[in-house]
Amino acid sequence: MSRALVTLNSQYDRRRVQELIFKAPAGTRVEIKAAQRTLDQNAKMWSCLTEIASQLPWHGKKLRPDDWKLLMIDALKRANGEVLYIVPNTDGTGFVNLSTSSSDLSKAEMSDLIELIHEFGARHGVTFHREEEEAA
Hints:
The protein has 5 helices and 2 strands. It is mostly helical. It has 2 domains: about 1-30, no CATH class; about 35-135, NinB (NinB fold), CATH 1.10.3790. Strand 1 (about 85-90) and strand 2 (about 95) form a beta hairpin. The protein is flat.
């Protein structure tokens, strides 16, 4: 077996992981990760990013929700003191942050990201209409 992914939901799952570890050859890598972000969290993140993109120009430019996602993940990583991997772009006119992916965020990290997005939006006068609708 070259790969296995087991989500720990029961004692059976834990025993299965133990069996896999005991049978694994030397040099096998094992990675333990916190619970992955939820679909609801993902939808909320994109809703918030869309609100920011529609209401807030950034340094004179209108950014897409995808652009805002990169900015917010960068802000989260900086706030958490994580090392950023920034390299020159291919034509030497700027830089690219290679440490900006949301697909691997845990539930807790996604909660922190959404909180950071809300805080940033509040500081810049963004109204989050989805939250207003949910509160009504």
